[in-house]
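[09:14] KT: can someone run the structure on this one? pasting the chain below
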Amino acid sequence: QVQLVESGGGLVQPGGSLRLSCAASGFTFSNVAMSWYRQAPGKERESVAHITWNGASTYYADSVKGRFTVSRNNAVNTVYLQMNSLKPEDTAVYYCVQGDSWGQGTQVTVSS
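[09:31] RB: done, structure tokens below
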């Protein structure tokens, strides 16, 4: 049974940083790509970042490019999203995704 558990969200001021973590279990983590999505209030879910099985390739939405960094540690079955220079428009629930499986999400709020 696939389980994805996000953590690390919270309230941060504009310009601040947060690091999200996603602990994965129930599948061979080191064999698969992983993604982060987000959903802001009243908006559709959008892809934020994607990382290949070995971390060799990454993808970012234009809105976060240069500010967010996705990484993974296959030894501990965890994928990360380092978010810097946060903006109010980054406020959303952030989800860890593998294939059709989604975590429960973690709330990120950027506000002064």
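[09:33] KT: thanks! The chain has a mean pLDDT of 97.
[09:34] RB: yep, looked fine to me
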